[in-house]
Amino acid sequence: xxxxxxxxxxxxxxVDTYVVTVPEGARRLAGQTAAVDRALDGAIAAQLAAGVAxxxxxxxxxxxxxxxxxxxxxxxxxxxxxxxxxxxxxLRTRIANASRRLRTLGVGSVALGLGGVTSPIDPASxxxxxxxxxxxxxxxxxxxxxxxxxxxxxxxxxxTLVEPAAGxxxxxxxxxxxxxxxxxxxxxxxxxxxxxxxxxTPTIVAQQAQRIASxxxxxxxxxxxxxxxxxxxxxxxxxxNGSVQPPKFIVLTYRGGRGNRFVGLLGKGITFDTGGxxxxxxxGMESMKGDMxxxxxxxxxxxxxxxxxxxxxxxxxxxxxxxxPSGSATKPGDVVYAMDGQSIEVINTDAEGRLVLxxxxxxxxxxxxxxxxxIATLTGAMNVAxxxxxxxxxxxxxxxxxxxxxxxxxAGERVWRMPLDREYADQIKSDVADVKNxxxxxxxxxTAAKFLERFAGNTxxxxxxxxxxxxxxxxxxxxxxxxxxxPVRTLVxxxxxxxx
Length: 500
Description:
Blueprint: E1 3-7, E2 17-22, H1 31-39, H2 43-49, E3 60-64, E4 73-78, H3 88-105, E5 108-113, H4 123-137, E6 156-163, H5 169-194, H6 202-216, E7 219-223, H7 225-230, H8 234-240, E8 248-255, E9 262-267, E10 269-273, H9 293-308, E11 313-323, E12 335-337, E13 343-345, H10 353-366, E14 369-376, H11 380-386, E15 391-395, H12 398-411, E16 415-417, E17 435-436, H13 444-456, E18 461-465, E19 471-472, E20 482-483, H14 488-499
Parallel strand pairs: 1-6, 2-4, 2-5, 5-6, 9-11, 9-14, 10-11, 13-17, 14-18, 15-16
Antiparallel strand pairs: 3-4, 7-8, 8-11, 12-13, 15-18, 19-20
């Protein structure tokens, strides 16, 4: 599906389907909707008068177009009550929901009249929201279905956004292009996270990162086991000990600014998590193919960053490995050493994400990252605390937190700041090492963050625990059942903010 932006009249577009908008309770039609209604001899107004179309938010009403316009079909999209302020987030959600309905109708090529629906929103934000709604809402991971009947039914052809105000067209077009890049980055992360673990091993993740680097001009370095051993990444390698799959410590570098200081994005990349010797229950373990969503988010964000080309240096780090039980696996009670020399008592081998991130944080600091953001499906406790609505953010720096909060607002991905009181560190004191990798059930998400804070040190840092938002259980708004790809767009907006 290609996205285009055009100025002028909707009725001038030669497409299969026109999409126009109507607010709830409308008595008079206006703008492009009124122009189409006149061409249809009042057919839209008749539907409203009969109560067939009501304008409720997200409502879809399809009409045959007849001979009055170039299109074969007209779809009326409800925009809700007038007294509810229109926002980019509402627009994005409405378009995403509508896109799936349009697909089932097999609407072909589409022209969407913008007109009044986007006027309360600046044109670039409106264009971005619509592009994201379309591309994220229509996402499907059905490549492994061998029968066509099991794949998404229906289709949408090219979509043209028609902006009647000439002075807004260029900005809408700019927003659409940015939205397309952001949505494609998030859909890439979804693809990586949705693949079964046998088809998304650490080696395959590294190959995907190398492919993306080649396509976008990123630098890509893959640190193999031997080099990781030389760098003394004992914490990262302790997780890989039980797997026959070789670990891959992936580094993607974007150079858009001056100097050798970087924003560091670090993603947990456990391509399958059994829990290791501290074996998880078998029920639901198949979802642990998504335990590399942090790494997938970093890779998706780096693709988008390279395409948007902001004036800032960014380093994306994805330490990837499986966490498997075997005769060579790390055992509860073992002591390992991280790259920065800190010793760690491994109390629970299922608390492995923080172990791979410990070395990622140490490496990022060594490479010149002066701002650190790590992303991980780290703790089930975060799902208990915030459910699937928000993800938790822990930050040792108020500016980093504020920038992330602002970025999440632009993305429509909701966050909540969590505590980092020093008293929580008492729970991860070890009798035999500098720190232990779990502090028990109480405040589990907080103690995991306190563990990571030790490796961030004084560097401005934030930890995003995305365990609760990793998967969507059903289609709703921009979320599609399966891996969510959150928080790719938040990360990109954070970087764009740093460039400004």
